[in-house]
Design a protein that fits this description.
mainly alpha, about 190 residues, single chain, 3-stranded antiparallel β-sheet, about 35% helix, globular, Lysozyme
Length: about 190
């Protein structure tokens, strides 16, 4: 059984990988994390499904459109959207999803347009998602601070404590007793 207090570092699940499929709490929260959190490469599935992510011309040129196919691109695009045998795994995924909805008396709509076989390259550089800064980096010329940037670094804005880790790692050489100021308020070690 998962004990929440035992989750005391970002290495916990790497050191205990079986929890991701054996512990109900971890199974659910890891799925929720994957659904809600964008990566450097992709917007989040939540952003796609709620129309927060709005494709730009670069996305359009790559045939990326909002909807079920775009979420398949996020989940497993290399396999299901760009397979060697030209099958559309997303359309197959949508058939199962529609059957699941039917079990609840809901209609999932037509399969047409729900695939992603035409997405040959995934979400493009220059696409709408790449305009969203989501990482921290050392803020040069402003001692003790980090800036938000649009390229990938080890410090993600969606990970609690990563701003502090950025400050402490890049300005204090990773000192565990690192103190820093954020919005004028002195912050200690709350991790």
């Amino acid at each position: 059984m998962f004990v929440e207090s035992s989750y005391n570092s970002k290495m916990f699940l790497l050191e205990n990988p079986d929890l991701v499929h054996t512990d109900a709490y971890t199974v659910f929260t890891s799925a929720l994390w994957f659904y809600m959190t964008p990566s450097f490469k992709n917007p989040s599935m939540h952003d796609v499904m709620t129309n927060y992510w709005v494709p730009n011309s670069a996305d359009g040129a790559a045939n990326i459109v909002p909807g079920f196919g775009a979420t398949t691109e996020i989940i497993n695009g290399d396999v299901e959207c760009r397979s060697q045998n030209d099958t559309d795994g997303s359309a197959n995924r949508y058939v199962f999803f529609s059957q699941f909805l039917g079990d609840f008396g809901l209609h999932g709509g037509d399969v047409a347009g729900m695939g992603c076989a035409q997405y040959w390259s995934g979400f493009p550089h220059g696409g709408a998602h790449f305009s969203e800064p989501q990482y921290f980096v050392k803020k040069w010329g402003d001692a003790g601070k980090c800036s938000v940037v649009g390229y990938e670094t080890p410090y993600n804005i969606y990970v609690e404590g990563d701003y502090k880790r950025c400050v402490c790692d890049v300005w204090e050489d990773g000192d565990a007793t690192c103190q820093f100021e954020y919005d004028g308020i002195e912050q200690g070690d709350e991790d």
